[in-house]
Write a structure and sequence with these properties.
Oligomer: single chain
Number of domains: 1
Largest sheet: none
Number of strands: 0
Structural class: mainly alpha
CATH architecture: Orthogonal Bundle
């Protein structure tokens, strides 16, 4: 349980590992050799952004994840300085390995986060102060950030062209994260409602949202299967596509096991599973 508590209270470290696994898989889907520097860049970027997110989401965490809020208060004198250190390190490495274009990708991730989590919309214009408060848009924004950085890091590093393969990989990551992110909203309904954040589960209900996610997961699985059959993805994509079955598994487990364990370990861990499946696929194919 100590390991579980560490992951829940320090999600930025775990999510950074998930990001590294996703870039690893992305490289293999492009047919290029995964590079450590790319995984380090996304690790540092996600660590800094998600740690910053703990600050911007403090009010929600005090309701949804009080242990995390308490843990952050305890270690904030170390965590707060680590945010600029990690992010600037990511920018430096990005510039060193691929120049200003790679820096732009890292900056874009930060820009999308600021649009997502910071109250930048004037109250005189809209009742919504940030993208996180707009139903559906919050999920798309998070997924878009992950998909962009996971696809464009290898594209820029290896000077790849934006082909149909790139778009297929982008769509795969985008919708895999959308499903993941919407599922996460199930456990945060109480805190989101208290803060006026409308989510798909809180508006449409658990049953309808689950049906929607099952359909979306099924369509994504079929899409990747057909794309691989048509040569748009390498054969190892068939193995990576087993993440579709993995997704069915955690959708089934909703309300059957501890919500925090399901969300923070199993659901977030899907990206690590994708990395492992990619590794196995590179050996088998």
């Amino acid at each position: 349980m100590k390991i579980f508590d560490f992951i829940v209270n320090n999600c930025s470290v775990y999510m950074s590992l998930c990001g590294a696994c996703l870039v690893y898989a992305s490289c293999l889907l492009f047919g290029v050799e995964p590079r450590h520097e790319l995984m380090i860049i996304i690790f540092l970027t996600i660590y800094s952004i998600y740690t910053l997110g703990i600050i911007t989401d403090k009010a929600e965490d005090e309701i949804n994840a009080p242990e995390r809020a308490t843990s952050f208060e305890k270690y904030k004198k170390y965590l707060i300085p680590s945010i600029p250190i990690a992010y600037l390190s990511a920018l430096f490495i990005a510039y060193y390995v691929s120049g200003i274009k790679m820096v732009g990708v890292v900056l874009l991730f930060l820009i999308l986060f600021l649009l997502y989590g910071v109250k930048w919309i004037p109250a005189t214009i809209s009742k919504y102060r940030r993208l996180k408060e707009i139903i559906g848009i919050k999920n798309i924004t998070v997924a878009l950030a992950w998909a962009l950085i996971s696809v464009f890091l290898p594209v820029i590093y290896f000077d790849l062209k934006i082909t149909e393969t790139a778009w297929v990989i982008f769509i795969f990551i985008l919708f895999r994260i959308i499903i993941n992110n919407i599922f996460f909203d199930f456990k945060d309904v109480k805190g989101d409602k208290a803060k006026g954040i409308l989510t798909i589960p809180s508006v449409f209900g658990v049953r309808k949202t689950l049906i929607f996610l099952v359909i979306l997961n099924t369509l994504l699985g079929i899409f990747i299967f057909m794309a691989t059959l048509n040569g748009l993805l390498p054969p190892l994509a068939h193995l990576i596509n087993l993440s579709t079955i993995y997704c069915y598994g955690y959708l089934y487990l909703l309300n059957k096991i501890d919500a925090k364990f399901l969300s923070y370990i199993i659901v977030d861990g899907e990206l690590i599973v994708i990395g492992i499946l990619a590794f196995l696929g590179s050996i088998l194919f």
